[in-house]
Design a protein that fits this description.
Number of helices: 12
Number of strands: 7
Strand content: 5-15%
Shape: globular
Number of domains: 1
Largest sheet: 5 strands, mixed
Structural class: alpha+beta
Helix content: 25-40%
Strand order of the largest sheet: 1-4-5-6-7
Order of helices and strands: HHHHHEEEHHEEEEHHHHH
């Protein structure tokens, strides 16, 4: 959405004018029974510095308070959409089974490639090479990933269409939403003044936590505009500074 087409978009947006990823996300939202969907490209005036600045500072709230985040994890651009063709050799034919004679029929794919945890698979997808997405993934309470497979990620655990459930715990090497304001980020919250930083132990704890949990994954990602470097993690910084726990 831009200042040129905003008035036209107020009356309606033809589906065929939307990128494939947005069309697919609307379809998924409809299947989930949801009436509303937030799309950054449609809810922020892209050529308005004032609107962009105001909304960019609210992104943590948007993703943290959404019911579910739909991620085109395997797409390198919005034109590719959520759904991709599967390689015939990636999976064996799925198993059909019932938990009980009265239950619904379930289908589960048997995975033959891409070993490793669900978080690792998702983290290797094209979407997560982008700097802005790091903050979005952290704050989203529930995310449905469409990439090499379909994966579910929430604050209780992760699962995929190939079966299995992985519970989250504080020892996972990946940055998890619940950890931002708990054990891992305690050293960041404890440093609240210059005097704290002058204490050798606090300073070391602060720098170690910041480097491991923020800077390493963030600096390995890509931002289109270098001036977005601080804005793209502003929500994380605000939560660390203001969280009372």
């Amino acid at each position: 959405m831009t200042q040129i087409n905003i008035n036209d978009f107020m009356t309606g947006i033809p589906m065929q004018r939307l990128p494939q990823a947005i069309q697919d996300a609307i379809q998924v939202s409809h299947f989930l029974g949801l009436q509303f969907i937030w799309v950054d490209a449609l809810c922020i005036i892209q050529d308005s510095p004032e609107d962009w600045k105001a909304e960019a500072m609210r992104m943590a709230d948007v993703y943290e308070n959404s019911l579910i985040t739909i991620a085109a994890s395997g797409a390198s651009s919005c034109r590719e959409g959520l759904f991709s063709a599967r390689g015939a050799l990636m999976e064996t034919p799925c198993q059909l089974f019932r938990i009980s004679p009265e239950s619904s029929m379930f289908a589960m794919l048997e995975e033959s490639e891409f070993p490793g945890s669900i978080q690792m698979k998702v983290g290797q997808e094209a979407l997560y090479k982008r700097g802005w997405v790091m903050q979005e993934r952290i704050f989203a309470r529930r995310t449905l990933h469409f990439g090499q497979g379909v994966h579910w990620e929430c604050r209780s655990g992760d699962c995929s269409e190939t079966g299995g459930w992985q519970y989250n715990d504080r020892h996972t090497p990946y940055l998890r939403p619940k950890e931002i304001f708990s054990v891992h980020f305690a050293p960041l919250r404890k440093v609240s003044s210059q005097n704290d930083l002058e204490d050798g132990g606090s300073a070391i704890d602060f720098l170690r936590a910041w480097d491991e949990l923020i800077m390493r994954p963030y600096t390995s990602s890509v931002l289109t505009k270098k001036e977005d470097r601080l804005v793209a993690i502003s929500g994380i910084i605000q939560r660390i500074l203001h969280n009372p726990q």
